[in-house]
Amino acid sequence: MAKTKMANVHPPRQGAPSGHLFVVSAPSGAGKTTLCAAIRKHFGDLAYSVSYTTRAPRPGEQHGRDYFFVSVEEFEKGIAEGRWAEWARVHGNLYGTSAQWVRQTMAAGKDILMDIDVQGAEQMLKHFPEAITIFISPPSMEALQERLSKRGTDDAAVMALRLANAQKEMARQNMYHHVLINDDLETATQEFIALLARYRGSSSTSRD
Ligand code: 5GP
Fold this sequence. Notes:
- By secondary structure, this protein is an alpha/beta fold.
- It starts with a strand and ends in an 8-residue tail after the last helix.
- Helices cover 39% and strands 19% of the residues.
- The chain contains seven helices and ten strands.
């Protein structure tokens, strides 16, 4: 792990239970989806924030499980009504997190895992200063480029856009409490688990 500083987590007031809010970001190709899946499997009681998005579902994605897929009109209505804890435009689509869901889940004392972009993480820190932010970084830009081209899902123009975005996101990693370098997947998974366990203490439930 390249850099790590414990977040300033305030203990909940008496009678006011509050879970931890773990906010994870990464450039595409850094392995965030795989790492978050491993974390969710390990900590079975972690509540995963299902985002709202205007992008079309990809094959295999399910409404309500991967995302809530909504129209641009509905999303914009949500902005006007203050329904999002944070929202951002990423790669041309809108993405947002339900403020009501975050508040209710934290009030129930549950820990939350959110997978959102850098702009969203910045907003979360403003609205929820107790949030614990984690940036997953590829070992280098060259490694990221190699992973993206191996994936083979993008044409040259899309890949150039993803790499340009990745560069911008990498430049913002200093704002995160923790930077996890995903060089070797198994090592990164163990470091990620250990990091969350440090915050969660004995309140965590592991399936292992
Ligand atoms: P994808 O469309 O590939 O699932 O996600 C694209 C990017 O959008 C990822 O970086 C992901 O973290 C980010 N993202 C997903 N949900 C949200 C959200 O609710 N808010 C923000 N700000 N970004 C999100």
